[in-house]
Design a protein that fits this description.
Layout (H helix, E strand, L loop, with lengths): L1 H22 L3 H21 L9 H15 L5 H30 L4 H17 L2 H22 L9 H67 L6 H39 L9 E4 H11 L9 E5 L4 E4 L1 H22 L4 E7 L3 E8 L6 H4 L17 H11 L3 E7 L3 E9 L2
Parallel strand pairs: 2-4
Antiparallel strand pairs: 1-3, 4-5, 5-7, 6-7
Helix pairs in contact: 2-3, 3-4, 4-5, 4-6, 5-7, 7-8, 9-10, 10-12
């Protein structure tokens, strides 16, 4: 029983951490929202519309500081990565359920604050799951009640606020159920893709094994031919030598085809895998990983468009196959859009700075529209006609499983740069 509870608790923590990672692209917007609107509306209410009721500038400034924390999180990268979950939940707890319920309790007769409280709780439901929402809602209500009592010892909870809060719960519960339906549809879509990929992989591996076996057999046959006494006639000796060379090339080609096809299958399956917590890691040279990527990737005469600059190699604790799949995805996307635009090259840079080990993937293709940038790492979002929308979300999950970050910058019509940063030491 205890093990079952611990298992569910661990699973809940993993889901919460995953949800925080999914929300991270919106942290800058949310941080800016906290910084500007919380103190901003205080002065707007105070000097422009001259609203009545209690307000607390100190609390608003404190929440604005929390917004600054979100905006500057990359400057304390190691602390943020280590304590991301509690920091994020503290920020949304203070800025949403506690703040809005506290001001509602201090202004119970205000229709504005009744609407504001509903708004705050709706925003909270966007960022967290159903269980987390009701936990934070409950804790926020209790904390707001006792904070109100601390300021006003004679405070009594008004009876007419109970049906208001019950209405909040009903509306938000409906909103959560509707959102959950969308999430279930996406999960079913992912499960269907996994099942289809598993069937395809199974059906493909058997003939590929035969191709690989044929390559090995041809290779052994070549070795046997080389032991045969050469014919006395010079022309026959040259013919035999040419045939042996041809067979050797065929053997190598067959094994290469089998290996590259298996790489494609592994990439497909790895793209669909969402949990990398149990993946084996080992010390890897980033230079060696990139060299293996270039060796294994099927370029179709595009290799000259890829430029690699190893300014300073570094060692990372990771899984080579997963990292190669990440680089495959980025290469595949860059080369696809370069072909579509009819221009561009790919520049891969490996370097370090004082705090991070960095890999840059830059292409001078068509670039990405600003409206699409925020959605790039969202599962099932794609701006490629042949895309599934799982490649870049897979890349993000792999890099984050290695305690790194991946970000994208682009100027439409000029270039796109993916930056992968891993903490040093």
């Amino acid at each position: 029983m205890i093990n079952k509870i611990l298992f569910k608790f661990k699973k809940g923590i993993q889901e919460s951490f995953s949800r925080v990672n999914d929300n991270e692209p919106y942290f800058n917007i949310f941080g800016l929202f906290l910084l500007l609107t919380y103190p901003g509306f205080y002065f707007y209410n105070k000097f422009i519309i001259v609203s009545e009721g209690l307000d607390f500038l100190g609390l608003r400034i404190f929440i604005a500081i929390l917004g600054v924390t979100l905006l500057l999180r990359k400057y304390f990268f190691n602390i943020w990565n280590r304590y991301k979950l509690p920091i994020w939940y503290f920020i949304i707890f203070c800025s949403l359920p506690f703040f809005f319920l506290f001001l509602l309790f201090n202004n119970p007769d205000s229709n504005i604050w009744q609407i504001n409280a509903l708004f705050g709780l709706m925003v909270l439901s966007v960022f967290v799951g159903p269980v987390e929402f009701f936990i934070l809602f409950g804790l926020g209500g209790v904390a707001a009640y006792y904070a109100t009592l601390f300021i006003n010892p004679i405070f009594e909870f008004p009876d007419y606020l109970s049906p208001v809060i019950q209405t909040y719960c009903a509306l938000i519960l409906y909103f959560i159920i509707h959102s959950k339906r969308k999430e279930v549809i996406e999960k079913k879509k992912l499960q269907t893709m996994k099942a289809q990929a598993g069937v395809i992989a199974h059906e493909m591996r058997t003939p590929l094994m035969n191709v690989n076996l044929c390559g090995n057999l041809v290779g052994r046959s070549v070795q046997n031919l080389e032991t045969i006494t050469p014919p006395a006639d010079k022309t026959e000796r040259e013919t035999l030598k040419q045939n042996i060379e041809t067979l050797r090339e065929i053997s190598g080609d067959l094994e290469l085809v089998a290996r590259e096809a298996n790489n494609v299958i592994n990439l497909l399956l790895a793209n669909l895998k969402q949990d990398f917590s149990n993946i084996k890691v080992e010390p890897l040279s980033m230079k060696a990983v990139l060299e293996e990527t270039m060796r294994a990737y099927i370029f179709n005469e595009d290799e000259h468009k890829v430029n690699i600059d190893i300014q300073e190699d570094f060692i990372i604790a990771g899984n080579q196959e997963l990292l190669i799949h990440v680089f495959f995805n980025l290469l595949k996307n860059s080369l696809y859009f370069i072909h579509a635009a009819g221009k561009g090259e790919v520049f891969i840079t490996v370097k370090t700075d004082d705090t991070h080990n960095i890999v840059l993937f830059k292409d001078t293709g068509p670039g990405i529209q600003k409206a699409h940038l925020q959605k790039l790492f969202t599962p099932f979002f794609t701006n490629s006609p042949q895309g599934t929308g799982i490649g870049l979300s897979f890349c993000k999950k792999v890099i984050e499983s290695l305690k790194g970050t991946i970000k994208v910058e682009s100027t439409y019509g000029e270039h796109t740069t993916f930056t992968m940063a891993f903490p040093r030491g």
